[in-house]
Design brief:
Helix content is 51%, strand content 16%. Among the domains are: 162 residues, PAS domain (Beta-Lactamase, 2-Layer Sandwich); 149 residues, Heat Shock Protein 90 (2-Layer Sandwich). The protein has a five-stranded antiparallel β-sheet. A hairpin with a 4-residue loop joins strand 13 and strand 14. The protein is an alpha+beta fold. About 2% of the residues have low confidence. The protein has nine helices and 14 strands.
C-alpha cells in the first residue's frame, strides 16, 4: 500500500471516528436541552398562574364547573384566542397549554380542556410532589408506544392568602401547566438537521484538508525519492554521466528538509570516496606499464652498454616519462571537469571559432606525421564555454592524428550545432564502440602499440555532459567518425 493511501486512510479513520462521536453528542444533547428550556419556561408560567388562581380557589369559585371564576373565564378566552406568530421561520397558529387545578386532596376542580374535572390526580407525580412541598413535574405519553405523543406537566403550589413568606403559607391546591412535546419537536428536528448538515460539511472540508495535506506530504516525499535516485552512485564506468540528471536539493520544510540536506551531505561524501577509489585503482593500473618500462631501462643503463643501446634505452625512458606526463595532465583536466556541474557561458560562442582554435593547436603535431587538417561547413553559435569546446575538439583531433595513416587528412565538419571529426584510419572493433569514452579504455594503434591513456575521449564525453549534449561514435570504413551534438539555444 502506497504512503499516500495509508495517510488518507489513517486521516479519514481518525476524522470519521471523531466526527461520529462529536455529532452523536450534539444530536443527543439537542432534544434534552430544548426540553429543559421548555420546562424552565413552564415553571415560570405555572407559578404566575398559581398566584392568579389562588383567590378563586380559596373563595370556592372553581367548584362546580367554575362558572363564576374570573380565572377560569380568562383561561378559556386564552384557549380560543387567535394566534399567528412567526418564530424563527416556523409559524405558530395554536396555543398549546392545558391548565388544570386540583384541591388539597388532589381532586381536579378545573380543566381548561374539560377532560378530567372531578378526577383524582393525587397519585400523579406533579400533584403529589407539589402537595408535599416539593417540585412536581412529569412527562406522560398519551400513546404509550409513541414517543412523539409525550406531554410535559409542570406544577406549582397554590397558597392560601396570609403569611409573610412562602414557607409560612398553607398549600390549598395545585396548578399544573401541560404542553405537548411535539410542539417543540420541529425545532429539535431543524436543529438536528442543521447539526448534521454542518457535520457533513465539516467532514467534507476535513477530507479536503486531509487530501491536500496528504498530497503535499506525498509530493515532498516523492521529491526526496527522486532526488535520492538522481544522486545515487553511478555504475562502474559511468562516472561521465551528465550531471544535469542530478536534481537540486529539494526545498522542503521541517524534518523533510533536514533529511534532504543530510542526504546531500551523505551523497557528497560517498561521491568523494568513490571518486578517489576509482581514480586510485585506474591510475595505479595505468601507471604500471610506463613505470615498469622506466625501471627496466634505468636498471640496464646502470651497466656498461654500447652507445646505440644506451641511446635506445634513454629514448625509452624519455618516451615513457612523456607518457606519464600526458596521463597526469589529462587526469588533472578530467578531474577538474568532473568537479564541475555545468558549463559557464556569458556570450554566444561560434563553433567555427572553436574548431579553428583546435586545429591551430594540433597543426604542428599533424604536420610531423604528414596529416592535413581541414575545417568545412559553418557551425552555429550558442551559449557554450569556448575553452571547453576547444579542449574537446583538440582531444578528438589528437586521437584522430594517432589513428590516421601518414599522408591522409583529418576533417572537422560543422553543421548547425553538430561538430564531426572524421579520420581515415582503421576505426575500432564494433565491440569497443560502446566503451569509447570510458576512463583508461584504449584500443591498439595502427602500429600495434597501446600508447594512449583513454582519457582523451573521456574528457570529450565530460565536456558534452557539462553542455547537456552528447557524443556519438561510429565506424565509416575507412575511418572513425565522432560527432558532438551541442544543445541549441
Amino acid at each position: 500500500m502506497r504512503l499516500g493511501i495509508r495517510l488518507l486512510f489513517a486521516f479519514f479513520l481518525i476524522n470519521g471516528i471523531a466526527a461520529f462521536f462529536v455529532l452523536r453528542v450534539f444530536t443527543a444533547e439537542i432534544k434534552p436541552s430544548v426540553r429543559e428550556v421548555m420546562e424552565d419556561m413552564m415553571v415560570d408560567t405555572a407559578n404566575i398562574l398559581a398566584e392568579l388562581a389562588s383567590d378563586d380557589l380559596v373563595a370556592g369559585r372553581l367548584e362546580g364547573g367554575a362558572v363564576d371564576s374570573a380565572f377560569a373565564r380568562h383561561v378559556r378566552i386564552y384557549a380560543t384566542r387567535p394566534i399567528d406568530a412567526a418564530i424563527w421561520g416556523f409559524s405558530k397558529q395554536s396555543l398549546d397549554y392545558r391548565i388544570y387545578v386540583t384541591d388539597a386532596r388532589g381532586r381536579v376542580l378545573f380543566d381548561s380542556e374539560n377532560r378530567a374535572v372531578g378526577a383524582d390526580y393525587s397519585q400523579w407525580r406533579d400533584v403529589a410532589r407539589t402537595l408535599r412541598g416539593e417540585y412536581g413535574a412529569r412527562s406522560t405519553r398519551d400513546i404509550p408506544d409513541d414517543d412523539a405523543s409525550g406531554v410535559m406537566h409542570v406544577a406549582a403550589p397554590i397558597y392560601a392568602p396570609g403569611g409573610s413568606a412562602t414557607a409560612e403559607r398553607r398549600i390549598v391546591g395545585v396548578l399544573t401547566v401541560a404542553k405537548p412535546t411535539r410542539t417543540v419537536q420541529r425545532f429539535i428536528d431543524r436543529a438536528e438537521n442543521k447539526v448534521l448538515a454542518s457535520g457533513v460539511l465539516l467532514l467534507a472540508l476535513s477530507a479536503a484538508v486531509g487530501v491536500a495535506v496528504t498530497l503535499w506530504m506525498v509530493w515532498n516525499v516523492r521529491r526526496l525519492r527522486d532526488y535520492a535516485l538522481s544522486v545515487q552512485g553511478p555504475a562502474a564506468g559511468d562516472r561521465d554521466s551528465p550531471p544535469a540528471t542530478a536534481l537540486a536539493v529539494p526545498e522542503v520544510p521541517g524534518e523533510l528538509g533536514d533529511l534532504a540536506r543530510a542526504m546531500d551531505r551523505m551523497r557528497a561524501r560517498l561521491e568523494g570516496r568513490d571518486y578517489i577509489e576509482g581514480y586510485v585503482r585506474a591510475l595505479t593500473h595505468e601507471l604500471k606499464s610506463p613505470v615498469a618500462a622506466i625501471r627496466g631501462a634505468g636498471e640496464l643503463l646502470q651497466d656498461e652498454l654500447p652507445a646505440a643501446d644506451r641511446a635506445e634505452f634513454a629514448t625509452q625512458v624519455v618516451q615513457q616519462s612523456e607518457r606519464l606526463q600526458r596521463i597526469i595532465d589529462r587526469l588533472l583536466e578530467l578531474s577538474k571537469l568532473e568537479q564541475r556541474h555545468h558549463a559557464d557561458a556569458q556570450a554566444p560562442v561560434a563553433l567555427q571559432d572553436c574548431a579553428n582554435a583546435a586545429v591551430a593547436q594540433t597543426r604542428g603535431r599533424a604536420g610531423q606525421r604528414g596529416i592535413e587538417l581541414t575545417v568545412s561547413g559553418s557551425g552555429a553559435s550558442g551559449p557554450w564555454e569556448p575553452e571547453l569546446v576547444t579542449l574537446a575538439l583538440t582531444n578528438l583531433l589528437d586521437n584522430a592524428i594517432d589513428f590516421a595513416p601518414g599522408g591522409s587528412s583529418v576533417r572537422v565538419e560543422l553543421a548547425g550545432t553538430t561538430v564531426a571529426v572524421q579520420d581515415s584510419g582503421p576505426g575500432v572493433p564494433d565491440y569497443a564502440l560502446p566503451r569509447l569514452g570510458e576512463r583508461f579504455f584504449t584500443t591498439a594503434r595502427p602500429g600495434g602499440e597501446r600508447s594512449g591513456s583513454g582519457l582523451g575521449l573521456a574528457i570529450v564525453r565530460r565536456v558534452m555532459a557539462l553542455h547537456g549534449g552528447q557524443m556519438a561514435v561510429r565506424n565509416t570504413a575507412p575511418g572513425l567518425r565522432v560527432e558532438l551534438e551541442f544543445r541549441g539555444v
